[in-house]
């Protein structure tokens, strides 16, 4: 795809998706500046498809803007929740979706990645050869790791690794977590569903991103990597490169992402068994 100009940030991007070994693709995505979003549907194949599509559709009106701010993204998130909860039809009560991604934003003349997440799709940033996971999974294994009760290696094979604790819909009333990350020229952002991160280890993700300068080639290659590793789930990948940013030269880079807004766990209904049929792996 060709580079597109935002107000102060010029990006080049690519996207790819594949249903993997599943009968249909319940992932949905939007890759149009200033929005780069991936949603992974759940709740039976019709419910999952409708939910992820409803989430992405709620953000479409923002795709005509040069950039977005926190208020606009949070308002669209509210629209997404309402849209999923209003899904018509029988058997859709359990329909829901994850959502993660990076939006182009600006503050005081400085370009930012506005990252959001609910669920276990992921947003990473590759900078100076290092791949950092920005989003923090809302999953049972992440909670166990945070509590020191599970190692990262143990999490990769834990039978609960597909069980998420927050979603849009599916009986969850959860808000998203948000991060504002100063954008630097040369940053590469990876947004993906768990069909990629669940199949391909982080060092292989980094190697593939470093090996493919073109973002579309990188996205396509990562989908192929997931298929080669089993392709048990739907796979969706977006790769976004920051070609030019505003205010990047003298601004300080934040090496570690700190959430600017995290939903209060007391305000959310914990729903540790959100992910059912479509998420159970063979
Ligand atoms: Mg998935």
Uncertain segments of ≥5 residues (pLDDT<50)? 1-6, 250-256, 268-273, 276-282
Q: Into which percent range does the helicity of residues fall?
A: 25-40%
User: What class, by secondary structure content?
Assistant: alpha+beta
Measured between the Cα atoms of the first and last residue, the distance is 35 Å
How would you spell out the order of helices and strands? Answer: EEEEHHEEEEEHHEEEEHHHEE
Number of strands: 15
Radius of gyration: 17 Å
* Bound ions, cofactors and other small molecules, one mention each: magnesium ion
Q: What is the overall pLDDT average? A: 87
Count the DSSP helices: 7
Q: How can the largest sheet be summarized?
A: 9 strands, antiparallel
How much of the residues is beta strand, in percent?
25-35%
Shape: globular
Question: How do the helices and strands line up, and which of them pair or pack?
Answer:
Blueprint: E1 4-5, E2 10-18, E3 27-32, E4 35-42, H1 45-59, H2 70-85, E5 96-97, E6 99-107, E7 110-118, E8 122-127, E9 130-133, H3 140-146, H4 152-157, E10 168-169, E11 172-173, E12 177-182, E13 188-192, H5 194-197, H6 202-211, H7 215-228, E14 235-244, E15 259-261
The structure holds magnesium ion (MG).
């Amino acid at each position: 795809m060709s580079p597109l100009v935002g107000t102060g940030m010029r990006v080049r991007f690519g996207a790819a998706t594949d249903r993997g070994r599943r009968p249909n693709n319940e992932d949905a995505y939007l890759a149009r500046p200033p929005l780069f979003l991936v949603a992974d549907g759940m709740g039976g194949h019709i419910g999952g498809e409708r939910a992820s599509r409803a989430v992405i559709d709620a953000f479409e009106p923002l795709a005509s803007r040069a950039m977005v701010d926190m208020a606009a993204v949070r308002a669209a998130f509210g629209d997404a929740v309402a849209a999923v909860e209003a899904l018509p039809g029988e058997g859709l009560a359990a329909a829901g979706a994850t959502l993660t991604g990076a939006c182009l934003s600006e503050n005081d003349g400085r370009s930012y990645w506005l990252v959001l997440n609910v669920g276990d799709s992921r947003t990473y940033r590759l900078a100076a050869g290092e791949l950092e996971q920005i989003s923090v999974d809302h999953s049972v294994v992440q909670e166990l790791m945070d509590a020191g009760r599970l190692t990262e290696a143990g999490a990769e094979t834990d039978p609960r690794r597909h069980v998420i604790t927050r979603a849009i819909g599916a009986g969850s009333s959860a808000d998203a977590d948000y991060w504002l990350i100063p954008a630097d020229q040369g940053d590469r952002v990876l947004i993906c569903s768990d069909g990629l991160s669940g199949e391909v280890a982080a060092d292989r993700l980094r190697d593939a991103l470093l090996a493919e300068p073109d973002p579309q080639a990188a996205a396509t290659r990562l989908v192929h990597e997931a298929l080669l590793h089993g392709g048990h789930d739907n796979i969706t990948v977006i790769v976004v490169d920051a070609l030019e940013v505003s205010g990047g030269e003298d601004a300080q880079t934040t090496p570690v992402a700190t959430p600017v807004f995290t939903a209060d766990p007391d305000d959310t209904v914990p729903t540790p068994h959100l992910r059912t049929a479509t998420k159970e792996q063979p």
